[in-house]
Structure formats: C-alpha cells, structure tokens
Design brief:
The structure is a single chain. By secondary structure, this protein is α+β, with helices and mostly antiparallel strands. Helix content is 21%, strand content 35%. It is built from 2 helices and 7 strands, in the order ββααβββββ. It has helices at residues 15-21, 28-36; strands at residues 2-7, 12-14, 40-42, 45-46, 53-55, 59-62, 65-70. The strands form 2 sheets. A 5-stranded mixed sheet has the order 1-7-6-3-4. The chain has a two-stranded antiparallel sheet with strand order 2-5. Helix 1 crosses helix 2. The longest helix is centred in the middle third of the chain and has 9 residues, at 28-36.
Length: 77
C-alpha cells in the first residue's frame, strides 16, 4: 500500500476534490463514480458521500493508495 501525505491550506476539503488533488482520479466525474460505487474508505469505513468533509488527520483509501490529510485546525468561535 502506498501512502500519500497531502497538505491543504483550508480546514477541510471535500472527498471528491481530495481524490483529484491527490492524483487518484483525473476528473470529478470519475471521482463521483468510484465514491458512489463504494470503492473509497474514510478512516477505515466505506464512504459514499462525495461531499464528505475531510479534515486534519483523516485518511482516505482507494485501492492500494492511502491519503493522509494535513490541514489547519478549524477555529471554534
């Protein structure tokens, strides 16, 4: 299994955007398709919500790739 460490500048990123940014899919349409078909896991659980917010420390797995997200923590006001 290959691990990809991905740093983002915002407190979260949507799951389908993450797949494109990490280079795991070429298009948003392909990202949507593999998410809806249940090929993507977030923190070890299958996730079919393409708009799922991925935050600091979350891991996203697709086939033989795991993406670990580094993001700034959200400020609570």
């Amino acid at each position: 299994m290959e691990t990809i460490n991905l740093s983002i500048r915002t407190p979260f990123i949507k799951l389908e955007q993450l797949l494109k940014l990490a280079g795991l899919t070429d298009t948003g349409g392909l990202a949507k398709e593999i998410i809806q078909q249940g090929y993507v896991s977030v923190n070890g659980e299958v996730c079919t919500m393409r708009g799922k917010k991925i935050r600091n420390g979350d891991s996203v797995t697709v086939e033989d790739y795991t993406v670990i997200v580094e993001a700034p923590l959200e400020e609570i006001t």
